[in-house]
Design brief:
alpha/beta; about 450 residues; two-stranded antiparallel ribbon
Length: about 450
């Protein structure tokens, strides 16, 4: 069954069950049931609004939280429309409560059924059962980067099988995938390798040739994805204008010194103040445990680089015993917090320190950094000044991370990019966060952070 049909059927079943239960339980709860004629109308409006929001198109990214928001918006708008119509055609003082009860049931059942469906899809994609065989047109740096992303993220449901390019890059950089042919081999490659999706990355082929290839894929009813030029500047805030048939992409640049980030930082300090009050008993207990197991100082302080390249002193609970000769390493405090054993040497974590690291409770003192204005709750993780200098020279767009305040958690961290992972990948995800910032994205990251603490990273957002 196709994705649109499967999701539409699932929503129809969930809505039917939700509305039947709403009507059945209303009188039992002391509320009147809605007239039967309004029930299917509400369901039809919900489905129509979901269609308008693109909820029945097969997505690459499986995003449960965005699905919940879409379902809640559709059910809420449907309720508003039905209430307005009922006020116009009938005199019923309970019409609003009846319809709002329907919306509440519909939201809960649609969200639950969608979550189960997306979880099953994510599991199938991870196991390779729901992955579509994908051909990448263009075997240059961008094509190889695209393949690397798809291999790293099987939850996108696209399994690259090879490239199409007459003048490929050094084959050692192509992630072990073959170059299956040149542009004129498109149809034969699609047929012989059962291609189900085509991605057009940058290629040496002329514009007219690439355009013909895209058109041919459309004629063959194959889904097509395009990696745009200047893709680093393409965000979710793009607006498309047209000069005749010529599209113009208007880039809305995020303003880290504008009102949106000002609101974010104000909310950060308020949240940090409330969280500090709530966590204060826990922090005192942890401070006592650190003092007993390792002595003073309780806090580990290290200079990191934050917004606009300004250094600040980041705080953590200490997690390692003091350095002694023979352990390897250099300074007992300077290397604390950089991993098991610090930069080098034996693992000096105590039992208390290991617990703090495993649960991320060692980072609770960074709430003080947020209150001071040095950090944000959400943002790129800060690095030491000496690393910043090296990374700034070696990694594309590294310095752009410093447009905003460093964070306790962030978009890269909730996707598993922390510790001994690629700094280039972290930079890419951090800049994505900055350029697509919204309070909703911050809320998502907070929920994903909580989920990551209690269970392994999921493939569903």
């Amino acid at each position: 069954m196709s994705w649109p049909l499967a999701t539409l059927t699932l929503d129809a079943v969930a809505l039917t069950v939700a509305l039947v239960l709403s009507e059945f339980t209303g009188p039992r709860a002391g509320q009147t049931a809605a007239p039967v004629a309004w029930v299917p109308l509400f369901a039809i409006i919900v489905v129509g609004l979901l269609m308008l929001r693109g909820a029945y198109r097969q997505p690459l990214r499986l995003q449960i939280l965005d699905t919940f928001r879409g379902v809640a918006i559709a059910a809420g708008l449907a309720a508003v429309l039905v209430i307005a119509m009922r006020v116009l055609v009938e005199d019923n003082p309970t019409s609003a409560t009846e319809t709002l009860r329907q919306a509440a049931f519909a939201t809960a059942f649609l969200a639950g059924s969608r979550a189960g469906f997306l979880w099953a899809q994510a599991r199938g994609r991870r196991q390779g059962r729901a992955a579509r065989r994908t051909l990448v047109v263009g075997a240059g740096h961008v094509g190889a980067h695209t393949v690397r992303r798809l291999l790293d993220r099987p939850e996108f449901g696209l399994r690259p099988i090879g490239y199409l390019d007459k003048d490929p890059l050094n084959r050692e950089e192509l992630e072990g995938l073959p170059v299956l042919g040149a542009s004129w081999d498109l149809e034969s490659v699609i047929e012989s390798h059962d291609v189900e999706h085509v991605i057009f990355a940058f290629s040496t082929a002329p514009h007219s040739v690439m355009l013909r290839l895209v058109q041919r894929c459309e004629e063959l009813d194959l889904p097509v994805s395009l990696v745009p030029r200047l893709f680093e500047k393409v965000t979710g805030r793009i607006r498309v204008e047209h000069l005749g048939g010529l599209p113009l992409l208007e880039v809305r640049r995020p303003d880290p010194h504008g009102w949106e980030f000002a609101v974010k930082y104000a909310l950060d300090r308020l949240a940090a103040f409330l969280l500090t009050l709530i966590a204060l008993p826990i922090m005192l207990i942890l401070a006592g445990a650190v003092a007993v197991s390792m002595g003073r100082p309780v806090l580990y302080r290290q200079v990191r680089v934050g917004r606009d390249g300004r250094p600040f002193e980041m705080l953590k609970f200490r997690s390692m015993r003091p350095f002694v000769d023979g352990d390897g390493g250099t300074d007992p405090v300077a290397v604390d917090g950089l991993g098991p054993g610090g930069v080098e040497g034996a693992d000096r974590r105590t039992a208390v320190g290991g617990f703090l690291r495993k649960t991320s409770l060692d980072e609770l003192p960074q709430l003080i950094n947020v209150l001071r204005g040095d950090m944000s709750i959400i943002g790129p993780r800060p690095e030491r000044p000496e690393f910043v200098e090296v990374f700034g020279e070696q990694i594309h767009r590294y310095g752009e991370r410093h447009r905003v305040k460093a964070g306790i958690t962030g978009w890269a961290q909730v996707h598993g990019l922390r510790g001994k992972t690629s700094m280039s990948d972290r930079v890419e995800w951090d800049n994505y966060y900055i350029e697509n910032f919204s309070l909703w994205l911050d809320f998502k990251i907070l929920l994903l952070t909580l989920a990551a603490i209690v269970r392994p990273a999921s493939s569903v957002e």
